[in-house]
Amino acid sequence: QVQLVESGGGLVQAGESLRLSCVASGISRIIFSANAMGWYRQAPGKQRELVASITHSGSTNDADSVKGRFTISRDNAKNTVYLQMNSLKPEDTAVYYCKMGTNRVYWGQGTQVTVSS
């Protein structure tokens, strides 16, 4: 059974950094490396939105709101995808979710990120 587990969220002040991790279990490294991965977030009262994505080949795509501040990366040897978040703003406050795949999709349970002003 495929599971995605996010970690690294927390409460920080504006301008600080956090690094989120998402580990995929129940799946081989070969299958993991063949899948696109993404980070999404959902703030209270808002729809879930894409933050950043990375293809199997390492090409990345970032939302305009996080360009230059957030970086997505992956370590296929560890079945892990990361989201480095720098210069955090209060509007980045949300639950952050990890997603694997495009046709057959798996989601993690989410990790809370709270940025105080």
Brief synopsis:
The chain is mainly β and 117 residues long.
Describe this structure in words.
The longest helix has 5 residues. Helices cover 4% and strands 50% of the residues. The model has no long low-confidence stretch (mean pLDDT 97). The N and C termini lie far apart (40 Å). The chain has 117 residues and is mostly beta strands. It is built from one helix and eleven strands, in the order βββαββββββββ.
Q: Which labels suit this protein?
A:
117 residues, 4% helix, 50% strand, mainly beta, 11 strands, 1 helix, 7-stranded mixed β-sheet, 4-stranded antiparallel β-sheet
- Quaternary structure state of the chains depicted: single chain
Given as residue ranges, the uncertain stretches (5+ residues, pLDDT < 50) are none
Q: Residue share in helices? A: under 10%
What do the pLDDT scores average to? 97
Number of strands: 11
In sequence order, what are the helices and strands, one letter per element? EEEHEEEEEEEE
Helix/sheet category: mainly beta
- Span of the ends, CA to CA: 40 Å
Tell me the overall shape: globular
Q: Sheet bearing the most strands, described?
A: 7 strands, mixed
How many H/I helices?
A: 1
In percent terms, what proportion of residues is strand?
A: over 45%
Q: Radius of gyration from the CA trace?
A: 13 Å
